[in-house]
Fold this sequence. Notes:
alpha+beta
Amino acid sequence: MAKSKLKQKQFSLNNLVIESILDKKGEEIVLLDLTTVNDTIVDTFIICEADNITQVRAIANNIVDQAEEQGIIPHSKEGFANSEWILIDFIDTVVHVFLKTKRQLYQLEELWHDATLQKIEE
């Protein structure tokens, strides 16, 4: 598959993920472009937060459901058991859905400060 077609597919997935987060009222959505960071194995992080674990789980489930409806199956999913930090791995895009307090604790944006950060508004 041509590189431009791969980028277009990733852009579509990223939009689907962001819309899925917004549908369930996810907050503080950011997209980290990691393509300019050396030695990364992923192109994009999408990070959001929610006030409670029920909402964290609802956001993550909506992302997975919407992706699967488009024939996109996550490579792996982690964190559904406690739903404080759910990670959904789509290979080139990794989604992090945090409970607000856990996001403040782990500060992924600070860890990946070399990445280009884009805040997503409704």
